[in-house]
Amino acid sequence: MSSRFVTAIAQATSGTDLSEEQTSELIDSMLDGEAEEDEVAALLLALKAKGESVSELVGAARALRRHMTQIPHSHEVLLDTCGTGGSSSGTFNISTAVAIVAAAAGVAVAKHGNRKATSLTGSADVLEVLGVPIESDAASVAKRLEENGICFCFAAKLHPAMKHVVGVRRRLGVKTLFNLLGPLCNPAGATHQLLGTPSSETQSMVADAISQIGTTRSFIVHALDGQDEVSLQGPTNVIDVGPLGVQRHQWTPADFGLLPAGRDALAAADPTESAGIIRRILEGEPGPCRDTVIAGTAAALVLVGKATQLKAGCEIAAHTIDSGAANQKLASLRE
Prior knowledge:
- It catalyses: N-(5-phospho-beta-D-ribosyl)anthranilate + diphosphate = 5-phospho-alpha-D-ribose 1-diphosphate + anthranilate.
- The protein is α/β, with parallel strands linked by helices.
- The chain has two domains: about 5-65, Transferase, Pyrimidine Nucleoside Phosphorylase, Chain C (Transferase, Pyrimidine Nucleoside Phosphorylase, Chain A, domain 3); about 80-335, Pyrimidine Nucleoside Phosphorylase, Chain A, domain 2 (3-Layer(aba) Sandwich), CATH 3.40.1030.10.
- About 50% of the residues lie in helices and about 10% in strands.
- The strands form two sheets. A five-stranded mixed β-sheet has the order 1-4-5-6-7, with helices on both faces.
- The longest helix is centred in the last third of the chain and has 17 residues, at about 290-305.
- The chain is globular and about 60 Å long.
């Protein structure tokens, strides 16, 4: 085991956070394929036991960004709805549906995501069932973004260096620092993020990291019912990181002008069921699933400045669905 891994493991085991630079160098070593699996596993577990820090998250994100395949584009405003996952809420792929509706409403979207890890259905899984080619190379992804205003950035394809740690992560079978990195490493460099988190602790840590790494504006959300989405079951806490600094808000179903919707009504057991729900929403089926997507889209529209208030955003989202534009946007993403 190399001396720097020995030092870092001992440091983390003693309860001391690693510096941003130190973490970045260690992650670089992992992603370059220079680190041994045993030392990678030992460090990730030591960090998990201690509790990952903002400096470690930022350092790891900067390293992963250096290794990712970048997607060039000409959009001044680019939205991502990728969250950290980990809520175990069992809902359909809400953020993926929100990405499609937001794109149909005129927002350029680079949806970052992967196959399921901590959920029953990942964004890549459901898009695959919906007929979207998820394995596209970088040039094809960039072309789709320029021509259609929406693309899917498949993490497994556009973060090729992650192949060096996939084995040890699978062997460990627990969430580690890497599970938090997805929303911080969008290959297209999203300027705006609607970013769901599974706990208030994760929400605060990710917001601090976003503040340091930088976006034009981001909403980091956590619902008090446990969802890592904008919820209509109860309050959703929001950390707004943007030009005015860091602000905290709380949204309720009344702010959207929508009826409360319980989490059980949003359940999907697998990607096929999730895809069916999304198809029906885009075809105009009413109900709590549609309302939840409308609420999430409204938040995204306020985030990028397409709406000044959540209720106005809901009106735009509903019209986008009812006009057939959202369904057409999914069709363009498939083609």
